[in-house]
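About this split. The held-out portion is used to measure sequence recovery: a designer receives only the structure tokens and must propose an amino acid at every position. Recovery is the fraction of positions where the proposal matches the reference. Here is one held-out target exactly as it appears in the evaluation file.
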């Protein structure tokens, strides 16, 4: 998909059609080729866009309106169905075009493996990059059942690329013993179970640094977001997730990209999951795009 192609379907609320003036580009990564439990997250971006219509363009939390920023919704990247390696290259190529135009990439997944090529490209421009990862799962495996391209491996790949000391993980409540060992060996800043309190303590140490933020919707408790491929009991509330996004937005970190992944609409007939996701995306746009 060319960076400057106009998306012809639904767009996220408040999106501009002025690509040249856009400060950020919102895009979908409809891939779920490697999921280990329930597929369907490839339908997440489209449903999040549709669900955005239920929300106001004004955020009472941040006292900003989407008309105060300029962002372009480029639609979903047309990925090679069933081919993880080619799909990851396509995502990387698309994001490279966004970065070359000096615009912030804000992605919607799709499974969590889609974050890997995005961080690869962002890291080329920001070699002192740090990654804030909010999730139920550590995603630090080297492989899943022998397959290195898996939604269980992106943060391992990222840690090996940018250095574990530059990875900050919050809310994790499901991981293997090997992943626990790797966290200690790699020097990852690891904060299980909780998100907001440890995040607020870490943010001052990241002041001035370029930061990529990746959020898996399953960090929320299934009671708040049942529409995901690998639900994990014991998570945070949507209120806590909003507060975490606002804490990052109000901090001195330099957010240079972000994504929200793993929304699988088919498992939530109430549609609360894409509705929550759309609100989180709105707050990320208003909070991260300065």
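Reference sequence for scoring:
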């Amino acid at each position: 998909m060319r960076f400057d192609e106009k998306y012809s379907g639904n767009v996220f609320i408040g999106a501009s059609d002025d690509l040249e003036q856009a400060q950020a580009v919102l895009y979908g990564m409809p891939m779920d080729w490697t999921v280990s439990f329930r597929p369907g997250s490839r339908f997440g971006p489209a449903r999040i866009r549709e669900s955005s219509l239920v929300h106001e363009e004004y955020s009472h939390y941040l006292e900003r309106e989407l008309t105060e920023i300029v962002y372009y919704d480029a639609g979903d990247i047309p990925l090679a169905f069933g081919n993880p390696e080619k799909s990851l290259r396509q995502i990387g190529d698309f994001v490279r075009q966004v970065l070359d135009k000096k615009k912030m990439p804000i992605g919607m997944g799709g499974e969590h493996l889609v974050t890997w090529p995005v961080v690869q490209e962002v890291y080329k421009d920001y070699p002192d990059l740090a990654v804030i990862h909010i999730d139920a799962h550590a995603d630090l495996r080297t492989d899943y059942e022998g397959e290195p391209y898996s939604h269980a491996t992106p943060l391992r790949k990222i840690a090996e690329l940018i250095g574990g000391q530059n990875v900050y993980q919050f809310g994790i409540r499901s991981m293997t013993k090997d992943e626990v060992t790797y966290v200690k060996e790699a020097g990852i800043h690891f904060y299980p179970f909780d998100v907001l309190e440890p995040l607020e303590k870490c943010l001052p140490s990241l002041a001035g640094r370029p930061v990529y933020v990746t959020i898996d919707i399953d960090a929320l408790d299934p009671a708040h977001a049942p529409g995901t491929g690998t639900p994990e009991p014991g998570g945070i509330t949507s209120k806590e997730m909003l507060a975490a996004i606002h804490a990052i937005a109000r901090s001195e970190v330099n957010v240079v990209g972000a994504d929200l992944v793993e929304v699988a609409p088919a498992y939530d007939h109430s549609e609360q999951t894409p509705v929550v996701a759309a609100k989180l995306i709105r707050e990320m746009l208003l909070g991260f795009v300065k």
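Annotator remark: The mean pLDDT is 95.
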